[in-house]
Amino acid sequence: MVRRETIAAVATPPGRGGIGVVRMSGSDLADVAEQFVGRVPVAREALLADFLDADGGAIDQGLVLFFPAPHSLTGEDVIELQGHGGPVVMDRLLNRACELGARIARPGEFTERAFLNDKIDLAQAEAVADLIDSASKRAAQSAMRSLGGEFSGRVAEIDRAVLDLRVYLEAAIDFAEEEIDFLAESDVVERLAGVETAIDRLLAESARGEALRQGLDVVIAGPPNVGKSSLLNRLLAENRAIVTDIPGTTRDLLSADLEIEGVPIRLTDTAGMRVGGDPVETIGVDRARSAVARADLVLVVEDASVDGDASALDIPAGRRLVVRNKIDLTGGSPGRSGEGVNICALNGDGVDALRLAIAEIAGAAPGEGAYLARKRHIEALTAARRYTAVARTRAGEGFGDLAAEELRQVQDRLGAIVGATSVDDLLGEIFASFCVGK
Ligand SMILES: Nc1nc2c(ncn2[C@@H]2O[C@H](COP(=O)(O)OP(=O)(O)OP(=O)(O)O)[C@@H](O)[C@H]2O)c(=O)[nH]1
Ligand SMILES: [Mg+2]
To answer: 343 and 388, same structural domain?
Structure first.
Protein backbone atom coordinates (compact mmCIF):
# COMPACT_ATOMS: atom_id res chain seq x y z
CA MET A 1 0.00 0.00 0.00
CA VAL A 2 1.14 3.57 -0.66
CA ARG A 3 2.60 5.28 2.42
CA ARG A 4 0.86 8.54 3.07
CA GLU A 5 1.39 11.27 5.65
CA THR A 6 -0.27 10.78 8.99
CA ILE A 7 -3.39 12.93 9.28
CA ALA A 8 -5.38 13.97 12.34
CA ALA A 9 -8.65 15.79 12.95
CA VAL A 10 -11.35 16.35 15.52
CA ALA A 11 -14.18 14.17 14.18
CA THR A 12 -16.94 15.54 16.41
CA PRO A 13 -18.64 18.90 15.81
CA PRO A 14 -17.10 22.02 17.37
CA GLY A 15 -18.38 23.17 20.74
CA ARG A 16 -18.99 21.35 23.98
CA GLY A 17 -20.36 17.82 24.20
CA GLY A 18 -20.24 14.69 26.30
CA ILE A 19 -17.61 13.10 24.12
CA GLY A 20 -15.15 14.51 21.61
CA VAL A 21 -13.30 12.31 19.17
CA VAL A 22 -9.85 12.86 17.70
CA ARG A 23 -8.97 10.60 14.84
CA MET A 24 -5.61 9.81 13.25
CA SER A 25 -4.80 7.79 10.15
CA GLY A 26 -1.44 6.83 8.68
CA SER A 27 1.14 4.10 8.36
CA ASP A 28 2.67 2.37 11.39
CA LEU A 29 0.88 4.25 14.14
CA ALA A 30 1.60 1.69 16.88
CA ASP A 31 4.48 3.87 18.12
CA VAL A 32 2.32 6.96 18.08
CA ALA A 33 -0.35 5.14 20.06
CA GLU A 34 2.23 4.06 22.60
CA GLN A 35 3.51 7.60 23.07
CA PHE A 36 -0.03 8.92 23.32
CA VAL A 37 -1.36 6.50 25.95
CA GLY A 38 1.73 4.72 27.35
CA ARG A 39 1.29 1.40 25.58
CA VAL A 40 0.11 -0.11 22.32
CA PRO A 41 -3.60 -0.87 22.71
CA VAL A 42 -4.85 -4.31 21.71
CA ALA A 43 -6.28 -4.10 18.20
CA ARG A 44 -9.94 -3.06 18.09
CA GLU A 45 -10.42 -3.20 21.88
CA ALA A 46 -11.47 -0.20 23.89
CA LEU A 47 -8.82 0.81 26.42
CA LEU A 48 -9.37 3.34 29.19
CA ALA A 49 -6.23 5.45 29.36
CA ASP A 50 -4.70 8.83 30.10
CA PHE A 51 -3.90 10.80 26.96
CA LEU A 52 -0.40 12.06 27.61
CA ASP A 53 1.41 15.24 26.66
CA ALA A 54 5.13 15.35 25.81
CA ASP A 55 6.07 15.51 29.52
CA GLY A 56 3.92 12.54 30.46
CA GLY A 57 1.20 14.70 32.02
CA ALA A 58 -2.43 13.78 31.36
CA ILE A 59 -4.26 16.01 28.86
CA ASP A 60 -7.46 14.03 29.30
CA GLN A 61 -8.66 10.56 30.17
CA GLY A 62 -10.82 8.51 27.86
CA LEU A 63 -11.11 5.54 25.55
CA VAL A 64 -8.54 4.81 22.90
CA LEU A 65 -9.17 2.48 19.98
CA PHE A 66 -6.45 1.20 17.69
CA PHE A 67 -7.34 -0.23 14.28
CA PRO A 68 -4.23 -1.62 12.58
CA ALA A 69 -4.22 -1.68 8.77
CA PRO A 70 -5.91 -2.96 6.74
CA HIS A 71 -8.96 -3.53 8.94
CA SER A 72 -9.87 0.09 9.51
CA LEU A 73 -12.02 2.83 8.10
CA THR A 74 -9.24 4.15 5.86
CA GLY A 75 -7.38 0.89 5.28
CA GLU A 76 -4.40 2.43 7.13
CA ASP A 77 -3.56 2.33 10.84
CA VAL A 78 -6.22 4.37 12.62
CA ILE A 79 -6.20 5.66 16.19
CA GLU A 80 -9.38 7.03 17.70
CA LEU A 81 -9.26 8.93 20.98
CA GLN A 82 -12.59 9.46 22.67
CA GLY A 83 -12.09 12.19 25.20
CA HIS A 84 -14.20 14.78 26.94
CA GLY A 85 -15.88 17.00 24.40
CA GLY A 86 -14.57 20.46 25.16
CA PRO A 87 -12.83 22.73 22.67
CA VAL A 88 -9.69 23.15 24.80
CA VAL A 89 -9.27 19.41 25.36
CA MET A 90 -9.83 18.66 21.67
CA ASP A 91 -7.37 21.37 20.68
CA ARG A 92 -4.67 20.02 22.98
CA LEU A 93 -5.19 16.45 21.75
CA LEU A 94 -4.97 17.61 18.15
CA ASN A 95 -1.76 19.55 18.91
CA ARG A 96 -0.30 16.50 20.57
CA ALA A 97 -1.19 14.39 17.50
CA CYS A 98 0.67 16.92 15.37
CA GLU A 99 3.70 16.80 17.71
CA LEU A 100 3.70 13.07 17.13
CA GLY A 101 4.00 13.56 13.39
CA ALA A 102 0.50 14.13 12.08
CA ARG A 103 -0.72 17.05 10.05
CA ILE A 104 -4.27 18.36 10.19
CA ALA A 105 -6.56 16.53 7.77
CA ARG A 106 -8.35 18.29 4.97
CA PRO A 107 -12.15 17.99 4.81
CA GLY A 108 -13.13 14.49 3.68
CA GLU A 109 -9.57 13.22 3.74
CA PHE A 110 -10.34 10.13 5.85
CA THR A 111 -13.07 9.09 3.40
CA GLU A 112 -10.77 9.94 0.50
CA ARG A 113 -8.16 7.55 1.89
CA ALA A 114 -10.82 4.87 2.31
CA PHE A 115 -11.54 5.34 -1.40
CA LEU A 116 -7.86 5.42 -2.42
CA ASN A 117 -7.22 2.24 -0.42
CA ASP A 118 -10.20 0.49 -2.06
CA LYS A 119 -12.28 0.31 1.10
CA ILE A 120 -15.20 1.96 -0.67
CA ASP A 121 -15.87 3.17 -4.19
CA LEU A 122 -16.56 6.74 -5.17
CA ALA A 123 -20.35 6.48 -5.12
CA GLN A 124 -20.15 5.09 -1.59
CA ALA A 125 -17.79 7.88 -0.53
CA GLU A 126 -20.28 10.44 -1.77
CA ALA A 127 -23.04 8.63 0.10
CA VAL A 128 -21.11 9.19 3.35
CA ALA A 129 -21.38 12.96 2.84
CA ASP A 130 -24.98 12.68 1.70
CA LEU A 131 -25.96 10.65 4.76
CA ILE A 132 -24.46 13.30 7.04
CA ASP A 133 -26.20 16.07 5.09
CA SER A 134 -29.58 14.30 4.84
CA ALA A 135 -32.44 16.65 5.58
CA SER A 136 -35.10 13.96 5.96
CA LYS A 137 -35.54 10.36 7.02
CA ARG A 138 -36.21 9.23 3.46
CA ALA A 139 -33.07 10.97 2.23
CA ALA A 140 -31.03 9.30 4.97
CA GLN A 141 -32.46 5.89 4.10
CA SER A 142 -31.61 6.39 0.44
CA ALA A 143 -28.07 7.49 1.30
CA MET A 144 -27.66 4.35 3.41
CA ARG A 145 -28.66 2.19 0.45
CA SER A 146 -25.97 3.85 -1.66
CA LEU A 147 -23.44 3.67 1.17
CA GLY A 148 -24.09 -0.03 1.59
CA GLY A 149 -23.05 -0.51 -2.02
CA GLU A 150 -26.48 -1.26 -3.48
CA PHE A 151 -26.27 1.54 -6.03
CA SER A 152 -22.69 0.63 -6.99
CA GLY A 153 -23.82 -2.99 -7.31
CA ARG A 154 -26.48 -2.01 -9.80
CA VAL A 155 -23.96 -0.01 -11.81
CA ALA A 156 -21.54 -2.96 -11.73
CA GLU A 157 -24.28 -5.31 -12.96
CA ILE A 158 -24.92 -3.13 -16.01
CA ASP A 159 -21.18 -2.75 -16.54
CA ARG A 160 -20.74 -6.53 -16.59
CA ALA A 161 -23.48 -6.96 -19.18
CA VAL A 162 -21.83 -4.29 -21.34
CA LEU A 163 -18.43 -5.92 -20.96
CA ASP A 164 -19.83 -9.30 -22.06
CA LEU A 165 -21.30 -7.69 -25.15
CA ARG A 166 -18.05 -5.90 -25.90
CA VAL A 167 -16.06 -9.09 -25.64
CA TYR A 168 -18.52 -10.78 -27.95
CA LEU A 169 -18.37 -7.95 -30.50
CA GLU A 170 -14.58 -7.73 -30.39
CA ALA A 171 -14.44 -11.45 -31.02
CA ALA A 172 -16.80 -10.99 -33.96
CA ILE A 173 -14.42 -8.39 -35.45
CA ASP A 174 -11.68 -11.02 -35.50
CA PHE A 175 -13.81 -13.08 -37.82
CA ALA A 176 -14.34 -10.16 -40.16
CA GLU A 177 -15.81 -12.04 -43.12
CA GLU A 178 -18.47 -13.68 -41.05
CA GLU A 179 -19.18 -10.54 -39.02
CA ILE A 180 -22.59 -9.80 -40.48
CA ASP A 181 -23.88 -13.28 -39.82
CA PHE A 182 -22.29 -13.30 -36.42
CA LEU A 183 -24.37 -10.25 -35.48
CA ALA A 184 -27.51 -11.32 -37.26
CA GLU A 185 -27.58 -14.71 -35.64
CA SER A 186 -26.81 -13.52 -32.15
CA ASP A 187 -29.16 -11.63 -29.88
CA VAL A 188 -26.76 -8.68 -29.45
CA VAL A 189 -29.41 -6.15 -30.40
CA GLU A 190 -31.92 -7.51 -27.88
CA ARG A 191 -29.28 -7.68 -25.18
CA LEU A 192 -28.38 -4.05 -25.85
CA ALA A 193 -32.04 -3.15 -25.52
CA GLY A 194 -31.98 -4.95 -22.17
CA VAL A 195 -29.04 -2.79 -21.06
CA GLU A 196 -30.98 0.32 -22.03
CA THR A 197 -33.93 -0.80 -19.92
CA ALA A 198 -31.67 -1.48 -16.94
CA ILE A 199 -30.10 1.98 -17.23
CA ASP A 200 -33.55 3.56 -17.53
CA ARG A 201 -34.69 1.87 -14.35
CA LEU A 202 -31.61 2.97 -12.43
CA LEU A 203 -31.97 6.49 -13.81
CA ALA A 204 -35.55 6.71 -12.60
CA GLU A 205 -34.57 5.61 -9.09
CA SER A 206 -31.62 7.98 -9.08
CA ALA A 207 -33.72 10.94 -10.19
CA ARG A 208 -36.01 10.30 -7.21
CA GLY A 209 -32.95 10.28 -4.98
CA GLU A 210 -31.73 13.55 -6.43
CA ALA A 211 -35.04 15.17 -5.42
CA LEU A 212 -34.67 13.73 -1.92
CA ARG A 213 -31.16 15.13 -1.60
CA GLN A 214 -31.77 18.58 -2.98
CA GLY A 215 -35.27 19.14 -1.74
CA LEU A 216 -37.75 21.23 -3.63
CA ASP A 217 -38.27 24.97 -3.73
CA VAL A 218 -42.06 25.41 -3.72
CA VAL A 219 -43.60 28.88 -4.07
CA ILE A 220 -47.24 29.78 -3.40
CA ALA A 221 -48.41 32.49 -5.80
CA GLY A 222 -51.61 33.98 -7.20
CA PRO A 223 -53.88 37.01 -6.97
CA PRO A 224 -54.54 38.78 -3.63
CA ASN A 225 -56.93 37.31 -1.09
CA VAL A 226 -57.27 33.86 -2.68
CA GLY A 227 -55.92 32.13 0.46
CA LYS A 228 -52.19 31.73 -0.24
CA SER A 229 -51.13 32.49 3.31
CA SER A 230 -53.93 30.31 4.64
CA LEU A 231 -52.54 27.45 2.54
CA LEU A 232 -49.02 27.98 3.89
CA ASN A 233 -50.38 27.87 7.44
CA ARG A 234 -52.40 24.76 6.64
CA LEU A 235 -49.40 22.90 5.16
CA LEU A 236 -47.25 23.88 8.13
CA ALA A 237 -50.05 23.13 10.60
CA GLU A 238 -49.11 26.39 12.26
CA ASN A 239 -50.29 30.00 12.09
CA ARG A 240 -47.09 31.37 10.64
CA ALA A 241 -48.37 33.89 8.10
CA ILE A 242 -50.83 36.71 8.78
CA VAL A 243 -54.24 36.03 7.27
CA THR A 244 -56.92 38.72 6.89
CA ASP A 245 -59.74 39.38 4.48
CA ILE A 246 -57.95 42.51 3.27
CA PRO A 247 -56.41 41.97 -0.18
CA GLY A 248 -52.70 42.78 -0.08
CA THR A 249 -52.10 41.42 3.43
CA THR A 250 -48.87 39.64 2.60
CA ARG A 251 -46.11 42.01 1.55
CA ASP A 252 -42.81 40.21 1.89
CA LEU A 253 -41.72 36.66 1.11
CA LEU A 254 -42.18 34.23 3.99
CA SER A 255 -40.37 30.89 3.85
CA ALA A 256 -40.53 27.79 6.01
CA ASP A 257 -39.11 24.26 5.77
CA LEU A 258 -41.23 21.16 5.90
CA GLU A 259 -41.19 17.58 4.72
CA ILE A 260 -43.75 16.03 2.39
CA GLU A 261 -43.58 12.26 1.85
CA GLY A 262 -39.94 12.39 2.90
CA VAL A 263 -39.00 15.15 0.47
CA PRO A 264 -37.50 18.23 2.09
CA ILE A 265 -39.49 21.24 0.91
CA ARG A 266 -38.79 24.94 1.24
CA LEU A 267 -42.20 26.59 1.05
CA THR A 268 -42.52 30.31 0.30
CA ASP A 269 -45.64 32.48 0.60
CA THR A 270 -45.72 35.58 -1.59
CA ALA A 271 -47.63 38.84 -1.97
CA GLY A 272 -50.78 38.62 -4.08
CA MET A 273 -50.01 39.63 -7.65
CA ARG A 274 -51.77 42.78 -8.74
CA VAL A 275 -50.88 46.15 -10.17
CA GLY A 276 -51.59 49.49 -8.59
CA GLY A 277 -50.83 48.83 -4.95
CA ASP A 278 -48.83 51.18 -2.74
CA PRO A 279 -45.01 51.29 -3.14
CA VAL A 280 -44.44 48.65 -0.44
CA GLU A 281 -46.87 46.27 -2.08
CA THR A 282 -45.29 46.88 -5.48
CA ILE A 283 -41.90 45.83 -4.12
CA GLY A 284 -43.56 42.76 -2.61
CA VAL A 285 -45.06 41.83 -5.97
CA ASP A 286 -41.63 42.19 -7.61
CA ARG A 287 -40.20 39.83 -5.02
CA ALA A 288 -43.05 37.41 -5.62
CA ARG A 289 -42.24 37.42 -9.34
CA SER A 290 -38.58 36.62 -8.78
CA ALA A 291 -39.48 33.86 -6.30
CA VAL A 292 -41.80 32.37 -8.93
CA ALA A 293 -39.04 32.53 -11.53
CA ARG A 294 -36.61 30.66 -9.26
CA ALA A 295 -39.03 28.02 -7.97
CA ASP A 296 -38.93 24.31 -8.79
CA LEU A 297 -42.69 24.24 -8.41
CA VAL A 298 -45.29 27.01 -8.17
CA LEU A 299 -48.61 26.41 -6.46
CA VAL A 300 -50.84 28.77 -8.43
CA VAL A 301 -53.73 29.49 -6.07
CA GLU A 302 -57.12 30.58 -7.40
CA ASP A 303 -60.31 31.47 -5.58
CA ALA A 304 -62.79 28.82 -6.76
CA SER A 305 -65.71 31.09 -5.88
CA VAL A 306 -64.75 33.84 -8.30
CA ASP A 307 -64.12 33.70 -12.01
CA GLY A 308 -60.56 34.38 -12.88
CA ASP A 309 -57.60 32.91 -14.54
CA ALA A 310 -54.24 32.67 -12.84
CA SER A 311 -52.59 31.44 -16.03
CA ALA A 312 -51.50 35.05 -16.51
CA LEU A 313 -48.56 34.04 -14.33
CA ASP A 314 -47.06 32.32 -17.37
CA ILE A 315 -45.33 29.37 -15.71
CA PRO A 316 -44.39 26.30 -17.77
CA ALA A 317 -46.71 23.33 -17.17
CA GLY A 318 -44.05 21.13 -15.58
CA ARG A 319 -43.40 23.66 -12.81
CA ARG A 320 -46.98 24.60 -12.06
CA LEU A 321 -49.76 23.12 -10.03
CA VAL A 322 -53.11 24.91 -9.97
CA VAL A 323 -54.76 24.95 -6.55
CA ARG A 324 -58.43 25.95 -6.48
CA ASN A 325 -59.11 27.15 -2.95
CA LYS A 326 -62.31 27.98 -1.03
CA ILE A 327 -64.34 25.09 -2.43
CA ASP A 328 -66.46 25.34 0.72
CA LEU A 329 -68.04 28.36 -0.94
CA THR A 330 -68.80 26.56 -4.21
CA GLY A 331 -69.67 23.10 -2.94
CA GLY A 332 -67.01 21.62 -5.24
CA SER A 333 -65.52 18.27 -4.25
CA PRO A 334 -62.02 18.20 -2.76
CA GLY A 335 -59.04 16.44 -4.37
CA ARG A 336 -57.57 16.09 -7.81
CA SER A 337 -59.54 17.61 -10.59
CA GLY A 338 -58.13 17.82 -14.08
CA GLU A 339 -54.70 19.40 -13.92
CA GLY A 340 -55.27 20.94 -10.52
CA VAL A 341 -56.30 20.18 -6.97
CA ASN A 342 -59.42 21.47 -5.23
CA ILE A 343 -58.98 22.39 -1.61
CA CYS A 344 -60.35 24.33 1.30
CA ALA A 345 -57.47 25.91 3.22
CA LEU A 346 -59.89 26.85 6.00
CA ASN A 347 -60.89 23.31 6.98
CA GLY A 348 -58.13 21.30 5.26
CA ASP A 349 -60.30 19.44 2.74
CA GLY A 350 -58.24 18.21 -0.23
CA VAL A 351 -54.93 19.22 1.35
CA ASP A 352 -53.75 15.60 1.64
CA ALA A 353 -54.37 15.17 -2.09
CA LEU A 354 -52.35 18.33 -2.64
CA ARG A 355 -49.47 16.93 -0.57
CA LEU A 356 -49.45 13.76 -2.67
CA ALA A 357 -49.52 15.78 -5.88
CA ILE A 358 -46.49 17.78 -4.70
CA ALA A 359 -44.63 14.59 -3.73
CA GLU A 360 -45.40 13.09 -7.11
CA ILE A 361 -44.04 16.11 -8.93
CA ALA A 362 -40.95 15.86 -6.73
CA GLY A 363 -40.61 12.33 -8.08
CA ALA A 364 -41.14 10.71 -4.70
CA ALA A 365 -44.30 8.70 -4.86
CA PRO A 366 -44.74 7.09 -1.44
CA GLY A 367 -43.01 3.79 -0.80
CA GLU A 368 -40.82 3.81 -3.89
CA GLY A 369 -37.14 2.98 -3.64
CA ALA A 370 -34.57 5.59 -4.44
CA TYR A 371 -30.83 6.02 -4.48
CA LEU A 372 -29.37 9.22 -3.22
CA ALA A 373 -27.62 9.76 -6.52
CA ARG A 374 -25.95 13.00 -7.44
CA LYS A 375 -26.23 15.11 -10.58
CA ARG A 376 -22.94 13.68 -11.78
CA HIS A 377 -24.30 10.12 -11.48
CA ILE A 378 -27.41 11.03 -13.41
CA GLU A 379 -25.35 12.71 -16.12
CA ALA A 380 -23.06 9.70 -16.41
CA LEU A 381 -26.03 7.30 -16.60
CA THR A 382 -27.73 9.50 -19.19
CA ALA A 383 -24.58 9.54 -21.33
CA ALA A 384 -24.19 5.77 -20.93
CA ARG A 385 -27.80 5.37 -22.03
CA ARG A 386 -27.15 7.47 -25.14
CA TYR A 387 -24.06 5.51 -26.17
CA THR A 388 -25.90 2.23 -25.63
CA ALA A 389 -28.65 3.35 -28.00
CA VAL A 390 -26.09 4.23 -30.66
CA ALA A 391 -24.37 0.88 -30.13
CA ARG A 392 -27.67 -0.87 -30.67
CA THR A 393 -28.26 0.98 -33.95
CA ARG A 394 -24.73 0.17 -35.15
CA ALA A 395 -25.10 -3.49 -34.21
CA GLY A 396 -28.44 -3.56 -36.03
CA GLU A 397 -26.71 -2.22 -39.12
CA GLY A 398 -24.08 -4.92 -38.85
CA PHE A 399 -21.22 -2.69 -37.72
CA GLY A 400 -19.87 -4.72 -34.82
CA ASP A 401 -16.65 -2.73 -34.52
CA LEU A 402 -18.49 0.59 -34.26
CA ALA A 403 -20.89 -0.86 -31.71
CA ALA A 404 -17.95 -2.10 -29.63
CA GLU A 405 -16.43 1.38 -29.69
CA GLU A 406 -19.68 2.89 -28.37
CA LEU A 407 -19.75 0.30 -25.60
CA ARG A 408 -16.27 1.36 -24.54
CA GLN A 409 -17.77 4.82 -23.98
CA VAL A 410 -20.60 3.28 -21.98
CA GLN A 411 -18.11 1.54 -19.72
CA ASP A 412 -16.13 4.76 -19.28
CA ARG A 413 -19.24 6.56 -18.08
CA LEU A 414 -20.27 3.77 -15.72
CA GLY A 415 -16.71 3.56 -14.40
CA ALA A 416 -16.72 7.26 -13.57
CA ILE A 417 -19.66 6.74 -11.19
CA VAL A 418 -17.79 4.34 -8.94
CA GLY A 419 -14.42 6.04 -9.47
CA ALA A 420 -12.82 3.37 -11.65
CA THR A 421 -12.09 5.88 -14.41
CA SER A 422 -12.24 9.17 -12.58
CA VAL A 423 -9.77 12.00 -12.81
CA ASP A 424 -8.00 13.80 -9.97
CA ASP A 425 -9.81 17.13 -10.15
CA LEU A 426 -13.14 15.33 -9.80
CA LEU A 427 -11.85 13.68 -6.62
CA GLY A 428 -10.73 17.05 -5.25
CA GLU A 429 -14.16 18.50 -5.90
CA ILE A 430 -16.03 15.63 -4.27
CA PHE A 431 -13.99 15.38 -1.09
CA ALA A 432 -13.67 19.13 -0.55
CA SER A 433 -17.39 19.28 0.26
CA PHE A 434 -17.01 16.98 3.28
CA CYS A 435 -16.69 18.04 6.89
CA VAL A 436 -13.32 17.80 8.58
CA GLY A 437 -12.66 14.53 10.40
CA LYS A 438 -14.72 12.51 7.93
N1 LIG B 1 -64.31 30.40 2.85
C2 LIG B 1 -63.00 30.30 2.77
N3 LIG B 1 -62.23 31.35 3.07
C4 LIG B 1 -60.90 31.23 2.97
C5 LIG B 1 -60.29 30.01 2.58
N6 LIG B 1 -58.96 30.18 2.57
C7 LIG B 1 -58.73 31.45 2.97
N8 LIG B 1 -59.91 32.09 3.21
C9 LIG B 1 -60.10 33.47 3.60
O10 LIG B 1 -59.69 34.32 2.59
C11 LIG B 1 -59.14 35.53 3.10
C12 LIG B 1 -57.75 35.74 2.53
O13 LIG B 1 -56.88 34.74 3.00
P14 LIG B 1 -55.30 34.87 2.93
O15 LIG B 1 -54.73 33.56 3.27
O16 LIG B 1 -54.84 36.04 3.70
O17 LIG B 1 -55.13 35.16 1.37
P18 LIG B 1 -53.82 35.55 0.59
O19 LIG B 1 -53.92 34.96 -0.75
O20 LIG B 1 -52.60 35.24 1.38
O21 LIG B 1 -53.99 37.12 0.47
P22 LIG B 1 -52.87 38.23 0.22
O23 LIG B 1 -51.79 38.02 1.21
O24 LIG B 1 -53.60 39.49 0.43
O25 LIG B 1 -52.40 38.08 -1.17
C26 LIG B 1 -59.14 35.35 4.61
O27 LIG B 1 -60.27 35.99 5.14
C28 LIG B 1 -59.24 33.85 4.80
O29 LIG B 1 -59.85 33.49 6.00
C30 LIG B 1 -61.14 28.90 2.27
O31 LIG B 1 -60.71 27.79 1.93
N32 LIG B 1 -62.48 29.10 2.37
MG1 LIG C 1 -51.15 36.37 2.11
So the answer is: no
